[in-house]
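Lab manual, section 2.4: Encoding a predicted structure.

Procedure: take the sequence of the chain (261 residues), apply the prediction step described in section 2.3, and record the output as structure tokens. A sample record is shown.
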Amino acid sequence: MDVTRIQLKVAGVMKNAPAQSHFRPQALISFITLRNFMGNPIGGNNRVWNPGWTYVMLKDGVEPQELEGQFPEFVEKYYPEFMAGQTSFYLMPLPDIHLESHLEYEIRPNHERSYLYIPGAIGLIILVIAATNFTNLATARSTRRAREVGVRKVLGAQRSQLVGQFLAESVLLTIVAVILSLALIQILLPGFNNIASKELEFARLFDGEFLLFIEASTIVLGLAAGLYPAVFLSGFEPVKVLKGGSSGKGKNSFRRVLVVL
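Recorded output:
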């Protein structure tokens, strides 16, 4: 390939880096080739030219602290005396750059970790409210299932079996809600990316670790939201229920707390 009369050889073609990657190069060339393009500002013995980023891959078994311990000697050897006292180096893990680096002129704009915590906290509050509403509605509708519970107990059903049934129903409803929410995300995500100038990808939700997190959260949320209704419904006394009397035993103080919440 001839570029401005400099012959370049394409040594390989690489896959596009993920949109969330900190380092997304369009092309990679050697430093010697860069000198041919830029000329003297990069060439010669200029040791203080530093408009660039340096990435290193440590060999297996090498600790970052070992390499950092050699930096002072490196500065003393290669930097002019007037700069050596004001220059220092340290290593930063690549995954930490996006949220932990507060240096100027990074390759891509950095963000604060609080930008993740705040939406996460809001999402958690919404989940708690939704789970509370589900628990309250399930117990409020208990009279509709009181006769079912009474009949099943008369036929020999154990309380543990009833609890298992109600918990399974709760988890199933949670799974349906997650599926509907994923469909809604897929529909609304392009518009959100345009408004927020983001490049969020729907496919990222199905990466190995994140998909496992979604599955585990779905089960835990379903069990947590359905635990009290399951215990409450399974505690109905069959004789009273079938006679049309009080369907449950005990007070509904917990339900009052849920209503207030």
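Check your result against the sample. Residues 114-260 form one domain.
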